[in-house]
């Protein structure tokens, strides 16, 4: 699979809790490109991802995907994007394998096994998520990236709680997505080690 679409944000304004997080923000993400959103705590990085994902509405400006205006109707974009938020969103009372089956029901079982091994989760597949460490739970949440066909990945602090091997594994997986023409919009307070990203600063 190879992707060749782009995302364009034009004149975006985001207001939250009576505060302007950004005004007249414009940028594009091209096929094969990763953008890291920068900004201090509370600057609005997560809010920007949520607006693009359609979790928060657009108050001002436009969003174009594949040359179509999707500002008011985000369905075209939502069909080909994956959003993994700051919280893992996992089902605490389900096991690792059950969570993966819940979030990626169409994943072939042999590929699930392969991904579990790559993610270092194979020996934990029957463990309930509520018993996992933060880094282990993050790995389970990220497993969705191993089974998605989405062209746009929206990742809020995806490296949080990961150890060095987890960071390297995720960076390699993101790089593979970019090499297929995928797009990534991510937030992280730590600069990626081996991943080439364009930086976008959110300033009030
Ligand atoms: N659920 C909410 N309801 C109202 N206001 C919120 C909510 N979540 C965040 N905010 C406000 O929106 C602003 C931006 O928050 P956001 O989480 O987007 O920032 P951030 O840059 O991602 O921060 P961090 O680096 O701490 O994760 C903050 O000032 C915050 O107070």
UniProtKB/TrEMBL annotation:
The keyword ATP-binding applies. PROSITE patterns: ABC_TRANSPORTER_1 (PS00211), ABC_TRANSPORTER_2 (PS50893). Residues 7-200 form the ABC transporter domain. Keywords: ATP-binding, Cytochrome c-type biogenesis, Membrane, Nucleotide-binding, Translocase, Transport. SUPFAM superfamilies: P-loop containing nucleoside triphosphate hydrolases. Pfam families: ABC_tran. The keyword Cell division does not apply. This is Cytochrome c biogenesis heme-transporting ATPase CcmA. It comes from Marinomonas vulgaris. The gene is ccmA.
